[in-house]
Structures are given as structure tokens and as C-alpha cells.
Automatic annotation (TrEMBL):
Role noted for this protein: Catalyzes the interconversion of methylthioribose-1-phosphate (MTR-1-P) into methylthioribulose-1-phosphate (MTRu-1-P).
Keyword DNA-binding in annotation: no
EC number(s) reported in the record: 5.3.1.23
Protein name: Methylthioribose-1-phosphate isomerase
Catalysed reactions, semicolon-separated: 5-(methylsulfanyl)-alpha-D-ribose 1-phosphate = 5-(methylsulfanyl)-D-ribulose 1-phosphate
Signal sequence range: none
Annotated site location: Transition state stabilizer: C185
Family: Belongs to the EIF-2B alpha/beta/delta subunits family. MtnA subfamily.
Keyword annotations of the record: Amino-acid biosynthesis, Isomerase, Methionine biosynthesis
Active-site residue numbers: D265
Xref: SUPFAM superfamilies: NagB/RpiA/CoA transferase-like (SSF100950)
Pfam families xref list: IF-2B (PF01008)
Length: 377
């Protein structure tokens, strides 16, 4: 799966936006390509995945992560499955068997991670595309179906990139020249197919000529802040200070932090937000210090079927993520470990939800439904 391996030295850093996930075709066929985020920041490994099982494994093992990026990757995985079937079977496979195989692929990819709703949204959209194709007389061959699904997946990726820019533009209005900001986990280009969600307002503010400084929480246990956000901001030329998670309160009190920007993996109808573990603590600290707390996420992250965050499924991950760092054990043997990947921040700690459909404020039950109605129209 590894096609390229580049050691990143300090002198090699370039001021550019990171590319996270994309589609390629060569003499071997189609491939879902992505940067292996489990190797960052010391190595940039570009993976070319040619089977849907490889795509599923990449999602589970955090080679790709971030709710929007997971959704885009899963959509491309569905298209890849159709392309693979056409390459292996030609037109020998009856279409009804193809649709059954795509259903299995949807279930395979849907079983990878339970919290990020973008995954299920993207898979359902791809399945809807396949269902429509089964009713359209012009889609009579597997090749036509594969091409249609590829177009739909690429459209999802393009829409995600456009929504990132829109969220960045909306969020940048809350950033002033000279602001010091704080973020938790990674909600940048590495988490999307565009410039990011939680980091997008920072990038747009930078493009507008505003000078900002970002405090980056390390984000234990997998260190997405230390490994990914710090690297990504450095690539983009954004000044930053990396801190451990338990330093956030100190710097809110003494560091002049003006606002907090984070992403989201699922947003309930009442505005409760599931995001990387530790987000709840940051929100409570921000509330205590009267610092605005902004959640930035595409509207596909909103799940109006769940009344509150108490209903959001929370992924429980392997204990080794807590007991070891880069394969090196750092705690005593035979200790009990809890490792929830996400927590839920109650809506009362959230200043605003910045989406690609607009900025929602409390009461979120009303503003989010109004946003949904406008989107439907």
C-alpha cells in the first residue's frame, strides 16, 4: 500500500495546504490515495488503496481520520469497489449481484467507526446514487454504474472542499488581527478534503492579512494536535505554540486567548457536540474564563434524528493507545484503561455552530431546524 515515503526535515517545510485524500487511475486501475496520518509528522507516506477492505482498514487504524475526510474516503471506497468489480468481472456479473456487493461494501465501511455521522451520510448518499441508477434505463452496464459512482464520490469531495472555504469565510469574522486562539485535536486540511473545518477560519483570517497565533493542545492519547495540527499549521506558516492538554486552563488565564475553534464528529439536534476526547474540558474552561467557544463543521455533521448528545454513540478504542506511545509502553503492566475516543460538549458551553449553511446560535434546536429547512429549499 505504501507508494512514497518522504522524511520531513525542518529545512524542507513548505508553506502550502496539505492534500489529504484523492482519486487516481493508472495501468493497475483505480486507487483511493491518502496521506497516512499515523506516520506524521516525521514521515509522509502516500498510500494507494486498491480494495475496499484496504479503505476500511485505513479508517479503523487512523491512517485517515477527521469526520469529513472519513466520509469522503468512504464514498471513494464505494466507487472503488464498483471499479474493482468492473475490472475483475467485466460485464459478466449481473447488475443485481453488483448492487448486492455494494450493499456489503456499505456495511463494511459503515462498521469502521461509529461516532462520526459524516461516514454514514456519505455511504447513504452513495447507496442512493446506486439505487437511482438501478431505476434509470441509461445505466445498463457495470462500467456505467462504476463511472456514475465515481462521479458521485468526487462530487462529495468537491462539495466538502467548497464547504470548508465557506465555513472559513463565516468563521473568520470572529477573528481579529492580533488574536491568540486555541484549538484541540485536528480539524484542518488533514481532517477534510479541503482546508479544514475548525482551522478553516484561521486560514482565511491569515489570507485576509490578519496576524494570529494558535495554541495547539497535544490531544492525548493519539496526539493529533501535537503530530498533525502543529505540523499542518507549520506547513501553512501559521505561528503556533504547542501545549499539553492540561495547560489549556493556565493559558486561558494568562495567555490572552481570545477564542477557541474546534471541529465536530456529530452534532445533535439540541446543539450538543461530539468531538475528540478532551473537547468538553476545553469548553468548560473557556466558559469559566468567558472565552468564546466556536464549533466549525459542515451541516452533514448535524444529526437531527438525535435529540441530544446523550444519544451519540461513543467509540471505545484499544487500550494500547493509552499505555504506549509509538509502540513504547509508558505505564505499568496490568492497569485498567479507559479509552473513549470522543466526549460530548453540552450546547450551553457553545457560543456558535459555524456550518457551511450559516452560523447557528442558541436555541440550537430552533436554529438548526431552520437551517435544515433553508437547505432543503
Amino acid at each position: 500500500m505504501k507508494e512514497a515515503c518522504v522524511l520531513i526535515m525542518k529545512s524542507q517545510i513548505q508553506r502550502q495546504q496539505v492534500r489529504t485524500v484523492w482519486w487516481e487511475e493508472d495501468e493497475q486501475g483505480a486507487a483511493v490515495c491518502l496521506v497516512d496520518q499515523s506516520c506524521l509528522p516525521l514521515q509522509v507516506n502516500v498510500l494507494r488503496l486498491r480494495h475496499e477492505h484496504e479503505v476500511a482498514e485505513a479508517i479503523v487504524s487512523l491512517k485517515v481520520r477527521g469526520a469529513p475526510a472519513i466520509g469522503v474516503t468512504a464514498a471513494l471506497g464505494m466507487a472503488l469497489a464498483a471499479q474493482r468489480l468492473w475490472r475483475e468481472q467485466g460485464e459478466r456479473m449481473p447488475l443485481h449481484e453488483v448492487y448486492a456487493a455494494l450493499g456489503k461494501t456499505q456495511r463494511l465501511l459503515g462498521a469502521t467507526r461509529p461516532t462520526a455521522v459524516n461516514l454514514f451520510w456519505a455511504l447513504e448518499r452513495m447507496q442512493d446514487c446506486a439505487r437511482r441508477a438501478s431505476d434509470e434505463p441509461q445505466v445498463e452496464t457495470l462500467r456505467q454504474l462504476a463511472q456514475l459512482l465515481q462521479q458521485e464520490a468526487l462530487q462529495i469531495a468537491d462539495e466538502d472542499a467548497a464547504s470548508c472555504k465557506r465555513m472559513g469565510e463565516l468563521g473568520a469574522q470572529f477573528i481579529q488581527d492580533g488574536d491568540t486562539l486555541l484549538t484541540h485535536c485536528n480539524a484542518g486540511a488533514l481532517a477534510t478534503s479541503g482546508m479544514g473545518s475548525g482551522l478553516a477560519p484561521i486560514y482565511i483570517a491569515q489570507q485576509q492579512g490578519k496576524h494570529v497565533h494558535v495554541f495547539v493542545d497535544e490531544t492525548r492519547p493519539v496526539l493529533q494536535g501535537a503530530r498533525l495540527t502543529a505540523w499542518e499549521l507549520q506547513q501553512a506558516g501559521v505561528p503556533l505554540t504547542l501545549i499539553t492538554d492540561n495547560m489549556a486552563g493556565h493559558f486561558m488565564r494568562h495567555g490572552g486567548i481570545k477564542a477557541v475553534f474546534v471541529g465536530a464528529d456529530r452534532i445533535a439536534a439540541n446543539g450538543d457536540v461530539a468531538n475528540k476526547i478532551g473537547t468538553y474540558s476545553v469548553a468548560v474552561l473557556a466558559h469559566a474564563h468567558h472565552i468564546p467557544f466556536y464549533v466549525v463543521a459542515p451541516f452533514s455533521t448535524v444529526d437531527l434524528t438525535l435529540a441530544s448528545g446523550e444519544l451519540i454513540p461513543i467509540e471505545q478504542r484499544n487500550a494500547e493507545e493509552v499505555t504506549s506511545i509509538r509502540g513504547e509502553r509508558v505505564v505499568p503492566w496490568d492497569v485498567t484503561v479507559a479509552n473513549p475516543a470522543f466526549d460530548v460538549t453540552p450546547h450551553e458551553y457553545i457560543t456558535a455552530l459555524i456550518t457551511d449553511c450559516g452560523v447557528a446560535r442558541a436555541p440550537f434546536t430552533t436554529s438548526l431546524r431552520e437551517m435544515m429547512s433553508s437547505k432543503s429549499e
